[in-house]
Specification:
Blueprint lengths: L1 H24 L29 E6 L4 E4 L3 E9 L6 E7 L2 E9 L3 E5 L7 E9 L6 E9 L2 E6 L9 E9 L5 E6 L5 E9 L6 E7 L7 E9 L6 E9 L4 E3 L5 E3 L10 E9 L6 E8 L2 E10 L5 E8 L8 E6 L10 E2 L2 E5 L8 E2 L8
Parallel strand pairs: 2-8, 17-24
Antiparallel strand pairs: 1-3, 3-6, 4-5, 4-7, 7-8, 9-10, 10-13, 11-12, 11-14, 14-15, 16-18, 18-21, 19-20, 19-22, 22-23, 24-25
């Protein structure tokens, strides 16, 4: 009896195993492949077989706008009928992409152009992140920042202060201002690094180097970080500081019968540039040597000076008057001759002269 029950149990287990294998061999149900989309499915999910929807219009910048390196630029667009407002903003040039914004939904963004950005024509693209087939395009021209010197100053006198002025486009950063000589060599660093300015203009004071002969210089400005962004203002003519002596009056000699040399009262006047200060020395240069008229007297005020002195009668050969700055002996005046007329005859008109002086010893 026990064997019969055992055999029936084994037969039942065998039958269950066969039924399991048959179930595995049956074809699977295809109901999952024909599921109806859920009513609340995400409408922003792209169906690649459906046509693209909507458009993106870029309103800023305008077509073919110029962007200067170093500047901040606004970008604005409008999405109409697109699956979503999520977009990416990029610049393209020669199949190379510069990412401006990976994802933005506000319809606007900003971009600061690197100062070292390559010049050329770029394509600005605003691309839908829900459907890359929907995008707006706009061409922009990128140019290097520019600097242009418009004035080197008003009064270009040696040793005086002045102000250079420039305009700029873009933002090249801090600038360097230098003065070049007629051979192109730097003779003065006016400013090693100063702010470019604001609102498109900038300026800086500068000190004219002392020179004793007229020279033509070149004023140069350039970006500190990018020296190729530069400008030159040529033919900056700097005049040396000057003292100019006015013409002297004529010296008239007495009639020879007086047998007395004439010591004529003289009044020497001059003009000078405001950069000169202190005292001056006045000399009479004669064939016998230099005669000091004044070892030191005030240069004057308001650009004018004068000095009264007595011309020694024994120097009848004449001479040249010279005025020299004591603070800078390299600054001296033009040489003005002392002019003579022959005897003034007693009772005769001033224009009537006769003979030569008798008592000239030098």
């Amino acid at each position: 009896m026990t064997n019969i029950l055992r055999n029936r149990l084994l037969l039942l287990l065998l039958s269950l195993s066969v039924l399991s294998c048959m179930a595995d061999a049956l074809p699977q149900s295809t109901s999952s492949q024909s599921q109806i989309p859920r009513p609340n499915a995400d409408p922003n999910v792209l169906n690649p077989n459906a046509p693209s929807q909507g458009k993106i219009t870029i309103s800023l910048p305008v077509s073919a706008a110029t962007w200067y390196t170093g500047t901040d630029q606004r970008i604005e667009w409008k999405c109409e009928g697109t699956l979503s407002n999520r977009v990416a903003v990029d610049l393209w040039k020669d199949a190379k992409k510069t990412v401006i914004s990976e994802e933005v939904v506000t319809g606007r963004t900003a971009y600061k152009l690197p100062v070292a950005m390559q010049e050329g024509t770029y394509e600005l693209r605003v691309t839908s992140l829900s459907d890359s087939r929907v995008l707006g395009r706009q061409l922009v021209n990128v140019q290097l920042a520019k600097i242009h010197i418009i004035s080197s100053g008003d009064q270009l006198l040696s040793g005086s202060f002045n102000r250079a002025t420039w305009v700029f486009q873009g933002d090249p950063g801090p600038v360097r201002l230098a003065l070049l000589d007629d051979k192109g060599s730097v003779v003065q660093i006016i400013a090693a690094s100063i702010p470019i300015g604001s609102g498109g203009t900038g300026s800086a004071p500068w000190y004219m180097p002392k020179t004793y002969v007229p020279l033509n210089y070149t004023l140069m400005i350039n970006s500190v970080a990018f020296p190729n962004i530069q400008d030159k203002f040529q033919n900056v003519h700097i005049d040396p500081l000057k003292i100019k002596v006015a013409e002297q009056p004529i010296i008239y000699w007495m009639h020879p019968q007086s047998k007395t040399p004439v010591n004529e009262e003289m009044h020497t006047s001059w003009f000078y540039d405001e950069g000169i200060a202190g005292q001056v020395k006045i000399e009479l240069l004669t064939s016998s040597g230099a005669l000091t008229i004044a070892a030191g007297t005030s240069i004057g005020s308001g650009g004018k000076g004068s000095f009264s002195w007595t011309y020694p009668g024994e120097y009848c050969s004449g001479g040249l008057i010279k005025v020299t700055s004591l603070s800078d002996p390299n600054i001296s005046s033009n040489l003005v001759p002392v002019r003579f007329a022959n005897y003034r005859l007693p009772g005769a008109p001033d224009t009537s002269f006769h003979g030569n002086p008798l008592y000239c010893t030098k």
